[in-house]
Input
Amino acid sequence: MPKPSYDVLVIGAGGVGSAALYQLAKRGIRAAALDRFHPPHKHGSSHGQTRIIRQAYFEHPSYVPLLQRSYELWREIEAVSQRSLYHEVGLVEIGPPDGIVLPGVIRAAAQFNLEIDRYSAAEATSLFPQFLFPDDHTVVFERRAGYLKVEDCVAAFLDIAQQHGAELIADSEVFRWSRDGAGFCVSTSTGEYRAAKLIIAGGPGAASLLSELNIPLHLLRKHMHWYEIDDLRLQESSGSPCFFFESSHGYFYGFPELAPGEGLKVAEHGGGETLASPWNYDHADDPEDRQRIEAFLQRSIPGVSQRSKRHETCLYTMTPDENFLLGLYPGDDQIALAAGLSGHGFKFTAVLGEALADLIEQGISSLPIDFLSPSRFAR
Output
């Protein structure tokens, strides 16, 4: 039986996989990451220039301690890589007082003593005149929120990992993985690789990689749009924040224009088209999605033009409860996995990488991740 070439193989080198590789490498663990493409790339979920990062988490307060650790790790990675990754421009969140977003934000902030500012629509209008706020909506501003430069984050993780001796095996499609004596064999388009342990962080490919667990992962195609602006108050240099609107029309979010001429990025968080395959799908614009985006802009940010600058697609891998899968593989403590980030995971990638490295090195993590255990779905 051939000896393992690596202590750990990481399947997937997107946001989570690259972070896990960084954590393994800095601990002196002999590791490599496999990816179907050459990361950072546009074929998964970790691209599109920016992702919002925030702490007052309306989805579930249990995420807040993970976010607080993630903030620490992002600053660590910035210092080590000498890259500017996290931009603290703040986040305006708007919604009805009896909706989903605002009550969740306020609950998380109260439970963890997080700093947020609450405003009426009239008060918010005087502070953020570039936005239109319905009179019956509440507004919250989180000062310590902002955005991450997503491709730069992946590149930073991979660069530092390789400086510490890790390997990136790019353009290598994973066909299957299996037990191989005391370790594992991963069969790919570039050959077979062996390791004592595995981390599975396959992003939109997770359903096939974890097929034996029978966890119903649902794949969605999502759209990101950039539009020219007419109101210069929407530029980051003018102090414009990120934004998240909840209304009867849906959930819409976006970012200020980062540099003159780049355009303002905006997207819809809900909805999306179901995909059968993560690899063979249409990357083209969707007229109905664009129509909803432009209607939102007319209602809420009139200083954005109807002149499109750019469009990209990305993928959401959804779990039934829209919470992540993170933990040891049920029935095998030599495999750790992260999957199903459900459209809100990139901000966590730094801490998810740390948790995966803990699990694969020690079999346990001190991070509060039990509520994300894959065992809640595995049959």
